[in-house]
Design a protein that fits this description.
- With 573 residues, the protein is α+β, with helices and mostly antiparallel strands.
- Helices cover 44% and strands 9% of the residues.
- The protein has helices at residues 38-50, 57-72, 92-95, 98-101, 112-130, 136-150, 168-174, 179-192, 258-263, 265-269, 302-310, 323-333, 344-355, 359-369, 404-413, 423-429, 434-442, 448-471, 475-488, 496-509, 513-520, 529-542, 552-555; strands at residues 152-153, 176-177, 196-202, 214-222, 225-230, 235-236, 238-245, 251-255, 289-293, 338-341, 376-377, 401-402.
- Helix 1 (38-50) packs antiparallel against helix 2.
- The relative contact order is 0.11.
Length: 573
């Protein structure tokens, strides 16, 4: 109880003010710039960004933005710079957005801090995920696979705050989102490795010209070919030899190029599950393919280009997009009729502008982020000594409260999974025994809503610990977290869908294929159930048919009947 009793949960709104004792200190003269050079201001901003996990994100990002604004006053505007021509092709209402009209101004708004945050996370993640893989297409496959396993697919559509469109930093932090959120994260991860990725959408047919393009997949440009990944299915679209046995025991899916899909109608038809369950895109539809380039207004700005140009070595990260230049390379590859800016980032910019005074949205956003801001006292350090009398006890050392779920999530998103200050350490701190929480409530030391926040954080930490164990190759521990600590404790909890999918992936990695199939087929209401059934089918074809147990598939229990809604083919709308 001592670890968290006494002010254990200071709850704050997102980006308002840090918990007590967590506010970062400002160096002398930072506001006045007195005695601090422009280079020092720039480095201070970067240092704060690199270490913001110790503080409340809104407070620290505000300081990052303030120092960048102080720095940029000393910089010279490039004479040749002009806004990208593709901006002029946006619908008029988006061109009139303040954030779009100010792309040439040398001033950083607070929102830029969150663009920097997403770039920092995706930079570190992309480096960690890709490892020593030299081939760009293989790197892209690894980035896509991580995205699918770590961003739980949520149903798209609906009304009200519960269906607010997310920015990439929110998708990464929360670990869930729509197929378009998955696509956007994948694109940003690829961009940090210099891999050019974009949305592939299908233009409306002639009788529906008033409709807009419907996003379908993500295209990855490599050596004048565009390779196709479907974020709704959660798999690359397989090429002619696309589904194979992987070297490590699971499936390996090699992506088809857009050219192959257009020339060979059978490739997309292989994704049909049956006469009544057909993949919704055919090769003839690809004649209407349009490329959509993802970029927030800040990523089109001069100020972000100036910051990016100053970054070197391991501190470099992609902060800007030159869409017209990318458009030329996409057109040279062929297969698309047009290249445009994706309107979703501008729609979000417009919505956030409208929601600035929306109390309902503010309350919803605060509630969603609340588990990250609950505090818990960090346990005292253990001194490694041969003399037990010299060990420090919990009564000898008192540590400041920390934000365990926030610290753990940031460590996770930066590829720091284990060790003394890794994701595992902080996730475990975010999992206090429920019995202790209930005792605190009964003794009047903790309000019931705060107890419920701790339980929400515990659910998140338990699921994310499973993902950490999977990436560390600790598959038995991953099974324990997904099965016992998620599905058995909270069978209808927020991570049900992701837990079943990642159970399947873990069993697949362990070459326990029947269990993998049962896991993929266990949740017919999952938004990506169609893709899971494809994966189960391929396991049956490539593994069980050759194990000497041809009847083994029949031993797996049949999944519950599909509901009317879940039996439909997938959609990326």
């Amino acid at each position: 109880m001592a670890m968290w009793a006494g002010g254990l949960a200071t709850l704050v709104g997102c980006g308002v003010r840090p918990p007590s004792g967590q506010a970062p200190s400002s160096p002398p003269g930072a506001e006045s710039v007195s005695g601090i050079s422009a280079d020092e201001l720039f480095q201070l901003a970067l240092d704060n960004l690199e270490h913001l996990e110790k503080y409340h994100v809104g407070q620290m990002l505000q300081q990052v933005v303030e120092r960048l604004n102080q720095w940029i006053k000393f910089q010279h505007r490039p004479d040749h710079w002009r806004p990208d021509p593709l901006i002029s092709r946006l619908p008029k209402q988006y061109q009139e957005l303040p954030s779009v009209r100010k792309v040439a101004e040398l001033e950083f708004p607070l929102e830029d801090g969150y663009v920097l945050l997403a770039a920092l996370w995706t930079r570190d993640l992309a480096k960690w995920i890709s490892g020593q893989t030299p081939d760009e297409l293989q790197q892209a496959q690894k980035l896509f696979d991580w995205t699918v396993r770590n961003i739980q697919l949520q149903p798209a559509g609906g009304e009200g705050p519960a269906y607010w469109r997310q920015l990439p930093w929110e998708t990464l932090l929360l670990g869930r989102g729509s197929s378009l959120d998955r696509a956007w994260v994948f694109i940003l991860l690829a961009r940090q490795l210099g891999i050019e990725a974009f949305l592939i959408a299908l233009a409306p047919i002639e009788e529906q010209q008033s409709a807009g393009e419907v996003p379908w997949a993500v295209g990855v440009l490599r050596e004048n070919e565009i390779y196709v990944f479907d974020p709704t299915l959660g798999i690359p679209i397989p090429g002619p030899e696309g589904v194979q046995k992987g070297a490590k025991g699971g499936l390996e899916i090699l992506p088809a190029s857009l050219r192959q899909l257009a020339d060979n109608p059978l490739l997309l038809r292989r994704l049909d599950l049956g006469p009544q369950e057909r993949y919704p895109v055919a090769s003839v539809d690809l004649a209407r393919a349009v490329a959509l380039i993802a970029a927030l207004p800040a990523e089109l700005s001069l100020r972000m280009q100036m910051v990016e140009s100053r970054l070197v070595g391991g501190g470099w990260m992609s902060l800007s997009v030159q869409p017209s230049q990318l458009a030329e390379r996409i057109k040279a590859a062929g297969g698309v009729r047009d290249v445009k800016l994706w309107t979703r980032p501008f729609t979000i910019a417009w919505q956030r502008q409208q929601q600035a005074q929306d109390r309902e949205f503010a309350l919803w956003h605060t509630s969603v982020m609340a588990p990250f801001w609950i505090q818990r006292a960090e346990p005292p350090p253990r001194r490694r000594t041969q003399d037990p009398q010299e060990n420090l006890s919990s009564t000898q050392v008192v540590r400041e409260p920390i934000l365990p779920l926030w610290r753990g999530r940031v460590a996770h998103l930066r590829g720091n999974l284990s060790g003394e200050r890794g994701a595992s350490y902080f996730y475990h701190l975010a999992r206090p025994p429920e019995s202790e929480l209930n005792i605190a409530v009964a003794e009047g030391k903790m309000p019931l809503p705060v107890r419920d926040l701790f339980l929400r954080a515990k659910q998140d930490a338990s699921y994310w610990l499973g993902l950490v164990c999977f990436d560390l190759g600790e598959y038995q521990a991953a099974l324990d977290y997904f099965q016992k600590r998620c599905l058995e404790l909270w069978p209808d909890g927020p991570w049900r869908s992701g837990a079943y999918y990642n159970l399947g992936r873990t069993y697949e990695a362990l070459a326990q294929y029947e269990q993998a199939i049962r896991s993929y087929e266990a949740d017919p209401q999952a938004p990506d159930h169609y893709g899971r059934r494809l994966r189960a089918r391929w396991i049956k074809e490539h593994f069980l048919s050759e194990t000497g147990s041809p009847s083994s598939v029949e031993k797996s229990p049949s999944p519950p009947p599909l509901s009317k809604d879940s039996s439909k083919a997938p959609s990326s709308k």
